[in-house]
Amino acid sequence: MKRVHNFAAGPAALPLEVLLKAQAELPDFNGIGMSVMEISHRSKDFKEVAEGAESLLRDLMGIPDNYRVLFLQGGASLQFDMIPMNLMSRTKRAYYINSGNFAKKAAKEARLFGEVIEPASSEDCNYSHLPLISDDMFSEDADYLHFTYNNTIYGTEFRGIPVKTDLPVVSDMTSCILSEPVDVSGYGLIYAGAQKNIAPAGLTVVIVRDDLIGLNPSLPSMLDYAVHAKNDSMYNTPTTFAIYMAKLVFEWLKEQGGVEGIHRINLEKADMLYSYIDSSSLFHGIVDNKADRSIMSVTFTTGDKDLDERFSKEAEENGLTNLKGHRIAGGMRASIYNAVTLEDCKALVDFMKEFERKN
Ligand SMILES: Cc1ncc(COP(=O)(O)O)c(C=O)c1O
């Protein structure tokens, strides 16, 4: 078996232990003579999977009882629409912090349903740091405040809710969910496409406070949180295999010491990479404010487009894959999600050192 060091931004690396468990269970799940992909989502065996996945996630994130966990489809991008459709109910106005490409896309969709106020933006510097935010930017009454926790493309990351506010806070945690402890009770809604830290692509996790469900009575069923909550995410056929994989990943996470345990490892991984980048005379970090650096998405460059190209190409040839930066940001990006190991990061630093020596 050949396995490379996979730094893909998403769909991304899954823990090898999880892949092997899924492989072993694939033809005959639970002794029923069928795979988990071949059974009804309403069967007893699958119900145990879905309930198990939810209960593990609740435990891992400390999700309070007054929140619902929904397993949906349509990616984080569908949430860019579902959030304003469901939550813009009273003032029909919401704050959107513009900290990156996905934050901007979320705001664009929200404008279809109401007024969007952009209190702060770092677009003018190509999102090379987080926008400066102060509490007085949020004085108007609004239905919620939206921010993208980890800016996957640029490599910046908030350290918790960036403002003191009584507004419901909505956060896109697609590229950082379960990577560090989060106090769920501070949020109105948390959402994440699963394809980075949870499962294969296809599943979207939404964690939503009870009082934010059912605010808009005239939504199409599939776009209504109330319908999904009432039907325990089984209003239609859910993405059963991805939910099964999520359960295996949650079990694996518990074995790593839960979110606190994986967070310690994530800090060590990020520190290893950033320390080397900061000491290097060839590479430098793309994020210009070190305090804003992400522990999941490490962006860097040599400053020379051709050399960057060569780096990604040679890395690929040496079993270090998917290091080319996003097409709109350039440079390189190492996505070091939970399943990327310390050994993977060590291999990357060793390769960077060797590349620096040669160039
Ligand atoms: C922060 C963030 N939000 C949203 C998305 C879009 O997710 P999806 O492709 O699941 O719609 C991504 C994808 O990379 C992301 O990183």
Radius of gyration: 21 Å
Second rung of CATH, namely the architecture of the largest domain: 3-Layer(aba) Sandwich
Secondary-structure element string: EHHEHEHEEEEEEEHHHEEHEEH
Low-confidence stretches: none
Structural class: alpha/beta
Give the overall silhouette.
Answer: globular
Main sheet strand line-up: 2-10-9-8-5-3-4
CATH evolutionary superfamily of the largest domain: Type I PLP-dependent aspartate aminotransferase-like (Major domain)
Strand content: 5-15%
Which fold name is given in CATH as the topology of the largest domain?
Aspartate Aminotransferase, domain 2
Q: How many domains is the backbone divided into?
A: 2
What is the rounded distance between the termini?
A: 33 Å
CATH class group of the largest domain: Alpha Beta
Task: Please count the beta strands (DSSP E, at least 2 residues each).
Answer: 14
The helix count comes to: 9
Mean pLDDT: 98
The percentage helix is: 25-40%
Description:
The protein is of the alpha/beta class and 359 residues long. The protein has 9 helices and 14 strands. The protein has helices spanning 16-25, 44-61, 75-87, 101-110, 225-230, 240-255, 258-279, 305-317, 342-358, and strands spanning 5-6, 67-72, 93-96, 115-117, 144-148, 150-151, 156-157, 169-172, 189-193, 204-209, 284-285, 297-301, 320-321, 332-335. The chain has a 7-stranded mixed β-sheet with strand order 2-10-9-8-5-3-4. α1 crosses α6 (240-255), α3 crosses α4 and α6 (240-255) packs across α7 (258-279). It is globular, with a radius of gyration of 21 Å. Bound molecules: pyridoxal-5'-phosphate.
